[in-house]
């Protein structure tokens, strides 16, 4: 959360001339309500089920850039589906992440003490993100445009890019 996946993903898709999809938006379309309302009305487990289905469908049907919600890769089935894809990890430090998410509006997992929650999530998840990524980009103090440009250059250097997409 606050790494810039949604923002940078959209810019990257425009740079590459491909379509953009965000898993949170796909979940919202399925549920007919915002992520925050799904958490409140139905609970996190219901959100994760919708997320797993939305990511699986997107990986099957969508051919452009897919931005994931930060918790999507906690699901082992989702991690397995991502194998062979050009997964990009946007690295963000605690300080920049907290600045970017502000009070955490629209991000239910940050309710309460935003800084403590962001720290906990970064600590728990960073090893998973590092394990999945084919490309890692530091985002602290950098503009989304700069980050998107570095990813585009990194994709160009990946071997067998078209076959493995
Ligand atoms: N590199 C960046 N530098 C500064 N602000 C950023 C950067 N990337 C994203 N942001 C801002 O941070 C907030 C969260 O970005 P978002 O793309 O929603 O992140 P994520 O999808 O990873 O949670 C947005 O307000 C966005 O404009
Ligand atoms: O980290 C998480 O578990 C979540 C991240 C959010 O997406 P972003 O990472 O795009 O903010 C969204 O999927 C939901 O609030 C849960
Ligand atoms: Mg996002």
TrEMBL record:
It holds the Pfam family SKI. Gene3D superfamilies: P-loop containing nucleotide triphosphate hydrolases (3.40.50.300). Its EC number is 2.7.1.71. Binds 1 Mg(2+) ion per subunit. One of its GO terms (biological process) is aromatic amino acid family biosynthetic process. It catalyses: shikimate + ATP = 3-phosphoshikimate + ADP + H(+). Its cofactor is Mg(2+). Substrate binds at residues 24, 48, 70, 125. One of its GO terms (molecular function) is magnesium ion binding. It comes from the Bacteria. Catalyzes the specific phosphorylation of the 3-hydroxyl group of shikimic acid using ATP as a cosubstrate. Belongs to the shikimate kinase family. This is Shikimate kinase. It comes from Nocardioides immobilis. The gene is aroK.
